[in-house]
Amino acid sequence: MVPTAAGKDEQASMAEQLRMMAVHAHPDDESSKGAATMARYVADGHDVMVVTCTGGERGSILNSSFEPADLVEHPARMRALRRQEMARAAQILGVQHRWLGYIDSGMPAGGMPAGGMPERGMSEGELQPLPDGCFAVVPLEVPTQDLVRVMREFRPHVVVTYDERGGYPHPDHIRCHQVSVAAFDAAGDPERFPDAGAPWQPLKLYYLHGFSRQRMQTLHDALLAAGAESPFGEWLTKWDSSRPDIMQRVTTRVPCAEYFPVRDEALRAHATQIDPASRWFSVPHALQAQLWPTEEYELARSLVDTTLPEDDLFSGIRERVYA
């Protein structure tokens, strides 16, 4: 049966009732973590917002072909360029976007704890002391209030962020986790931040889990079996075998392989951070769709009934909103 125009309007109205917010530390994190999920939900007619906590001023230039390389010495110029890249990525993904406006903390002196997976190009020689007023050192209540204000305005049903380790132990990622959890708890409380808008309680909180050894091993083995080169060999060799695979914590796997090309296009928009010839893009989409067609999440909080494992971040919410 072909829906009538009125029926289509009703379906669109229902779809618009579902809203997802993804809270990230730096511009480019949204495109490397959960981007295909967001693109899928946008295509389904839902509202998706990305909140970026910092300007990414202290990230390294990871694209060797990118000029000028001295941007790392000019945070204001880097910030302006990262804003342009983020705007392009948001347009590709079809998401709304907000900045919290905090200063990128950089990676602290002393380096990443053992077992961490390095990202964003910080070698030991490039580790930086935390600057005054950066995101990782401001009092927790300050960015929490800022995020509560955005939550109460956008009114998400689902909030997605990092786990307690930040996904990997960058200080901005860990602070992003802390702020997101605190804002999730405070947004619906009329006594918390009364000047930040009318209370709104999100219904589910998820942690993103993108770096799975099981996923890398699965794709690595398939590539080698096909006589192709694998981009994961070095990572797998250096993997801390004492750490359990994050898949043990996963509760929710969202099918989104159709949107892997959108994810990669959004990632390429962050030209200062992503080398277009890097390992990110070396595994054919068809192979990914065949062997690992999902993105993974851990349900951390839920105020609705749901059955685990899930394949939909809005599971349990649809039943309440559409009742």
What oligomeric state best describes the polypeptide chains here? single chain
pLDDT < 50 runs, ≥5 residues: 1-15, 111-126
In the CATH classification, which architecture applies?
A: 3-Layer(aba) Sandwich
CATH superfamily grouping: LmbE-like
Structure description:
This protein is α/β, with parallel strands linked by helices. It has one domain: LmbE-like (Rossmann fold). The protein is built from 11 helices and 7 strands. Strand 2 (47-54), helix 4 and strand 3 form a beta-alpha-beta unit. The longest helix is centred in the N-terminal third of the chain and has 19 residues, at 75-93. The two termini are 23 Å apart. Mean pLDDT is 86; it is low at 1-15 and 111-126.
Key descriptive features of the protein:
alpha/beta; Rossmann fold; 7-stranded mixed beta sheet; 11 helices
Q: What is the fold's blueprint, element by element?
A:
Elements: H1 5-16, E1 19-24, H2 29-32, H3 35-43, E2 47-54, H4 75-93, E3 96-102, H5 141-154, E4 158-161, H6 171-186, E5 204-208, H7 213-225, H8 233-238, E6 252-255, H9 260-268, H10 285-291, E7 294-302, H11 317-321
Helix pairs in contact: 4-9, 5-6
Give a short overview.
The chain is of the alpha/beta class. It has helices at residues 5-16, 29-32, 35-43, 75-93, 141-154, 171-186, 213-225, 233-238, 260-268, 285-291, 317-321; strands at 19-24, 47-54, 96-102, 158-161, 204-208, 252-255, 294-302.
